[in-house]
Amino acid sequence: MSWKTSTNDKEYLYKKTGGIWKSLGPRSVETETAYRQFHAGRQQSKERVARLAQRLDELAPVNRALSIGRVPQLTARIIRALYKSGLIRYRNHSRGNPMPCLSMSALPVCISVVVFSRRKTWTS
User: Fold this and answer.
1) What is the Cα–Cα distance from 16 to 13, expressed in whole angstroms?
2) C-beta of residue 90 within 8 angstroms of C-beta of residue 101
3) Prediction pTM value
4) What's the Cα-to-Cα distance from 13 to each of 18, 24, 84, rounded to whole Å?
5) What is the pLDDT of residues 24-49, one digit of tens each?
C-alpha cells in the first residue's frame, strides 16, 4: 500500500493485490487511517513471524530427537522421484507459500507409499 501522485498533483492511496495496483481513493482522513492500519498490521505480522521462526529454531533439536515431523526416507525418495518426473509440481498458494500439487496419475503411488511407510512403522 502506498501513496501515488496523479497527473493532477493529487495523492491517491493504492493497494497492490495479486500484482495489480488498485486505487482506494484520494488522500483523506479515511484513506490515511487505512494506510496507518495496514502498515501497523504489517509490522505486527513481521514481528509475529520473527517470534515464530525463533520458536521453531528453539524446537528444531527436540523435533529431530523425537523424529517429529519426519517423513520416512523411502517416502521422501519416492516423492522426490515423482517431482523430478513431473508428476508433482509446486504452485504458489494464495498466501505465497509453495504447495505440492499432485497429478491424478501420481495419487495412487503416493497413497501406496504412505500405507507402506505406516505399515513399516507399525511393525518395527
Assistant:
1) 10
2) yes
3) 0.51
4) 17, 5, 44
5) 999 999 999 999 999 999 999 999 99
